[in-house]
Amino acid sequence: MSDLANVYQLFRSKFEDNDFQYYYPPSYIRSLTECDDKIIFAFRKVQNHILSSEMDAVRPKQSPNSNGSASLDLTGSPLRDVSFEQFEEMNLSKEYQESSVQNLWTVDEETYAPLSTEKARSLLQAFISLECRIGRGSIWVLCCGTDSEQKVLLQLSVNAASNNQRHFTRGVVRFSGVQPSNSITLGQLIDIHRQRAGEGMKFSPKIQIQQWCKLHAQITLRLSWNTMGEGSTFAIERNARVRLSQEFPVNNGAFSRSSPAEYFWQQLQRLAMMRERIMDIRANRESGYARNDVCGEAEMDLEYIKQKVNNILSSFLEVEPVTYNSSTIIDMVSLVQKRKLTDVMERLYDALTLCSSYEDLKTAIDYIFHLSTHSNIVNVPTNGTRFAQLILAMIQDRLAIPLLTGSEPYELLLECGFSKLMNDYRTIFTEAGIYELEFEKLFQPQVTNTRKSRYATGNGPQLDTHHGAPSKRSATQLFQSAAGDDRVREKSILLSNFDEDEVKLRLNRLAQVHLLLEHLLLLESAVNVPSIYGRVCELYLGRAPYSYGEVYNRRTDLLEFELDEFMLLRKADHVLPCARRVTMSSANMLQKLETVFYQNVKPILPGRFYPQFECKELDSKHEFWCYEYDRIESL
């Protein structure tokens, strides 16, 4: 636990020539320490004009109406958003693509220039000599590595129990060169550690080893185990703990264009656009009544839609039992996408999404109501949506034909769309034997929000200034006995029952379910160990979802979990490691020395600040950039 606010202020006031930040550690310090506590980091801030210009060239411009805050709901219309289209059509520079793929450091870390080793050492020594208030945590200084030992980082850990008693732990990170991976042995590392510890310290035989393997460009396995004795090797032990990390490339929403599940993401986009239309109409914005973009290029004329609706309600449909015999997730996705719709409301929803305008949608729904009242309906809806309840009530002569106003046509359509998409996802996960999706639990709000939009709920008629005044039968007193007897009137079914927060939560959760499906498709193609899928679903759905709009502001989505799976160990046996971390220690009565040997196929520090580390071509095709981190603590 870091508590260095006072120390940070002292550093800024006493050492004004240097730059400091009190924040979470840079990526290279996290790799060495595996600690995310806040630190004081000393460096020299530089402006990287070349990098800034490259980033400006590839960063998508935000549309005038967009807001960059990730905390806001950005549901919008992603398919026609200007910034998204520009991002799709952008030709990224080769330099940016290489830096985003190859570099292990972040863009911000390109501006953290090192200090000289002498200056870094004197800075920490001057701090030790100062009187300071209580603080606890680590101070790190970035060094240029030009000294004989090639020091790149110095550390001072502070553990203050009182103003007069301070406990310091020192650390140093050295760059030890680029070496062929097959030339590095555990025995060599033990010898290096023992030389630094000296004869006065006793070597601890317990050695911690972590090894990372790339199973796929986006999938990494971390294998962790302890070994005893000096004759040990880097061979993976059967009892190793396994942690899988998968970074699915969201690409600011562009992932769907090349996904086998693109159809289902498009359905979710359609629901998001319906929500936007409803919000526009409730706010009396003209855009709510504009030409419909919900159906895209498949829009049809009204007469065609009426004929299609009439066939759905009045013609017999031969229903055959559906059996899914697919053994893979990707095949199941294809089967569900191409399945023949048999549910009446799903078929009506499919037809109504062909409407090209608000007026056509309103007229088509009114046509359905008239058919339900005056025609011989063969196919009676059975699902629990309000639209289905209204049709059923009119078929049974318990309801007069209502007049739709305001956003009510879109609200009825939105509820049907949610029902269909939920059924699609549930079928994929269940029939593929992956997981039982329980949407009732997923749609329960995690945090109660008492503040709602003024347009959040609709318990009563809406003011429709463009399409007639509210009817007495539009959203109240919908049920009316055919004989006019008030005593047999039934409970009303509200046409307008829109809750902004509930719809937002449903969109967010369905977006989470879709990203989970994308993760599973990637796992199946690269790893193909079905026994882990249930665990993946349980962990992924157990965390809070992103907002639907936030998906369009993300480059990747991280799936990370630990598991006990022998099949993954077997796959790692045949893959060369991409990184390794070896920890060992020695101690006596007064001090303890811990050494971390960190090796990676790529450098962890920005190369522009360390040109002297550039290596010549080696004969080996697989080499490690090697770093040694010594930490000595007084006991």
From TrEMBL:
Q: Which Pfam families match?
A: Zwilch
The region called Disordered is annotated at: 55-77, 453-474
Biased region (Polar residues) positions are: 62-74
> One cellular component GO annotation, for this chain's record?
RZZ complex
Q: Which UniProt keywords apply?
A: Cell cycle, Cell division, Centromere, Chromosome, Kinetochore, Mitosis
**Gene Ontology biological process terms in this record:** cell division; mitotic spindle assembly checkpoint signaling; protein localization to kinetochore
Superkingdom assignment: Eukaryota
Q: Where in the cell is it found?
A: Chromosome, Centromere, Kinetochore
The record's InterPro entries line, in alphabetical order, gives: Zwilch (IPR018630)
Main function: Essential component of the mitotic checkpoint, which prevents cells from prematurely exiting mitosis. Required for the assembly of the dynein-dynactin and MAD1-MAD2 complexes onto kinetochores. Its function related to the spindle assembly machinery is proposed to depend on its association in the mitotic RZZ complex.
Task: Give the PANTHER family listed for this entry.
Answer: PROTEIN ZWILCH HOMOLOG
Instruction: Give the family this protein belongs to, as stated in its UniProt record.
Output: Belongs to the ZWILCH family.
**Subunit structure and binding partners:** Component of the RZZ complex.
Q: What is this protein called?
A: Protein zwilch
Q: Which organism is the protein's source?
A: Anopheles melas
